[in-house]
Amino acid sequence: MLLIDTNTCSGCRLCEKNCPFAAMLIVDEIAVVQDNCTLCGACANVCGEHSITIERAAATPEELAKFKGIFIWAECGESADGESLVPKKVTLELLAEARRLAEKTGEEIRVLVLSDERPVNTDDLFAHGADGVIRFVNKLLWPYSTDAYTTVISAMVAAKKPSIFLLGATPDGRDLGPRVAARLKLGLTADCTQLEINDEGQLIQTRPAFGGNIMASIVTPFSRPQMATVRPNVFAVSENPEIDRKGDIEDFDVALQRGVVRTKILEVEKVGETGGGIENAEVIVAGGQGLNSPDDLDMLRELADELGGTLAGSRPLVEAGWIPHTLQVGQSGITVSPKLYIAVGISGAVQHVVGMNGSGSIIAINNDPEAPIFKVADVGIVGDAAEVIPALIKEIREAKKAA
Ligand SMILES: Cc1cc2nc3c(=O)[nH]c(=O)nc-3n(C[C@H](O)[C@H](O)[C@H](O)COP(=O)(O)OP(=O)(O)OC[C@H]3O[C@@H](n4cnc5c(N)ncnc54)[C@H](O)[C@@H]3O)c2cc1C
To answer: Ligand 1: residues whose CB is within 6 Å?
Structure first.
């Protein structure tokens, strides 16, 4: 329910101008809400007098049953030539998992696609399991901004009433998810690593808690949608996309005012060593505390360069300031699933291993033959990193020359 404090409302018209559905009118200098209000929260967000509040009571089973469908936010990046937008891998991972959940709930999957005027590759979304796309195009939607995306996504979710809404736990997804949840007065389970549907049709959202010592399974019995962000690289992308699969595309009608966006992006600086971020790397060479000094990272970078990969590391290297947090693999860092993961001087603590054990092949280099990392490695090399890495680089260069 939307409440307006008529004693404090100044009739300034900010709510009227910023309502995405033209559902707020100023009558006799007081805001008056119209029947088409979706409770998306855009008016409460801009009200300088804090005169507008949204109250949500626990929903009845009948009210909960009105929410239908699994929605996914399609996080997109630019294509190589910058001419179009391409759904990120995490979106395809969510689609694969949503398909599995949809088989149990019998619901349709809709993907929310926001773009500037460049086209978005929706064929991939349908091929990977989307039944439909809900699209909104506006120049203000590139680059990503918290304000514009929160306004549009909240409006879409409020209007369409899905039962489940999933986002990738990427930097932008971790920014957007809580904003939308707060705007719509919903709960959110962040950083899920497992999703399931229980016998009552509720979404069980599982995530590590208390430093990974327990797995917490969370349900949302009294409100909808059930919202969760999901870690990238936890679910696999479908290996058999149906390239001929088609779905419907609906253009969403919503007003987005320039004044909503309070930030201006001056410059975008890529911090991943390859520019793509370690979550998307096909080859990772990761260093640990077995390295003697930050200078040792140079030989790891050299090895990564030879293999077309990127550098990463364990948490102690981040804490020592040798590498940025964006390169940390593990439970409190990033989950990766490259084709090849080379762990150098890393012991194999559980908090590290949970972030990399989905890798295709794992090579571990460690001078302790009893190091736990060898238990998850496909190939283990017992030796001093300072000797093994230069020897590996030499071998690779010679093999390349001979080829
Ligand atoms: C709540 C919580 C969250 C955490 N999250 C993360 C996380 O996200 N990521 C993460 O990595 N850690 C995380 N940790 C820390 C984790 O528990 C370990 O402490 C950490 O992973 C150890 O890093 P390491 O393997 O580099 O160092 P160490 O455990 O010190 O291992 C160093 C290894 O290098 C080997 N070595 C030494 N000298 C050489 C040499 N010359 N050549 C080759 N090998 C050598 C040693 O035999 C040893 O096995 C977390 C911990 C907690 C409590």
So the answer is: 211-212, 288-290, 314-316, 328-333, 345-347, 349, 351-352, 355, 365-368, 371, 384-385
Q: How far is the CA of 353 from the centre of ligand 1 (A)?
A: 10
pLDDT of residue 270: 66
What is the residue with the minimal CA distance to atom 43 of ligand 1?
366
What pLDDT does residue 55 have? Answer: 87
- Structural domains of the chain sorted by starting position, each given as residue range(s) with its CATH number in brackets: 2-54 (3.30.70.20), 61-260 (3.40.50.620), 278-402 (3.40.50.1220)
CA of 314 to the centre of ligand 1 (A): 6
Beta partners for residue 208, in sequence order: 215
Q: What percent of the chain has pLDDT over 90?
A: 87
Please tell me the number of Cα atoms within 13 Å of 52 on its side-chain side: 26
Bond preceding residue 241 cis, omega within 30 of 0: no
> Which single residue is written with the structure tokens 């060593």?
273
Does residue 274 register a pLDDT over 60?
Answer: no
Taking residues 4-16, report their average pLDDT: 95
Atom of ligand 1 nearest to the CA of 332: 8
Tell whether the model's pLDDT for residue 180 goes beyond 90: yes
Torsion sign (Cα): 220, 136, 175, 47? negative
Give pLDDT tens digits for 374-388.
Answer: 999 999 999 999 999
The rounded Å distance from CA 252 to ligand 1 centre is: 49
Q: Could you identify the atom of ligand 1 that is nearest to the CA of residue 385? A: 42
